[in-house]
């Protein structure tokens, strides 16, 4: 088999991942960023052929901590999880860093730690520290000037790392679309590479956003059952969006399948009649590179036992 170490252990340099994400943004074509909450999910995203993955803050709170998306996770918890995910894949990882966990100095520390953890992009938003999911109600915002300062701090902190900075505004639901667009322009001027206007309510609002912010890479967040129209990648590209974020589609699909699986087990007391609904044993081992690890172990230990 002669497996190389790199083929088994993901180890693509972080600068290459950031360059790959920037190439996607510069390609002129829209692309999907599937959301993930764990290493198994990011392996599935990689296997499916996507060019990047998105660590969803809401999904991380839900799946790893059993918490709602109301700003309860700490900087350290997120950074530690990013390191785990980056170690499990060669894909560029976009990280939802909420508000940056404080003011400008906290943002700088967050950016430096996420760079060290292997992030390819960091997303920051203009809510106050006790943030809420963008598709909830009753958001509170910092001023546009404060948020622009935080973006400038993030730009300074990233240095020459080529980290992509994504600026999100939740102003649409608080102050209206015009203010959201005005903030978006200010955040782009402060140095954000990608702009994310959260939760537009109609296709026409999305068209206005794309027109008013033409020339800036734009992210659209498709939340099934949320406030934004559930458009396809092709429809988003036609409107002028670059990144199609499906942040919690994978997690919710897995939760739905898990609920059905456990209901069957509770009812039937067995799993063999539902075997066709399981990932096959061999596929599971292949997903986590068992054969490659085994071959490497044999290569490095052969002839040494009992020496």
TrEMBL record:
Gene3D superfamilies listed in its UniProt record: Phosphoenolpyruvate-binding domains (3.20.20.60)
Name of the molecule in the record: Phosphoenolpyruvate phosphomutase
Keyword Phosphoprotein (UniProt): no
Organism this protein belongs to: Thermomonospora echinospora
CDD domains linked to this entry: ICL_PEPM
SUPFAM superfamilies referenced in this protein's UniProt entry, alphabetically: Phosphoenolpyruvate/pyruvate domain
Pfam families the UniProt entry points to: PEP_mutase
Highest taxon listed in the record's lineage: Bacteria
Organismal lineage: Bacteria, Bacillati, Actinomycetota, Actinomycetes, Streptosporangiales
A molecular-function term among this protein's GO annotations: oxo-acid-lyase activity
DNA-binding recorded as keyword: no
Keywords of this entry: Pyruvate
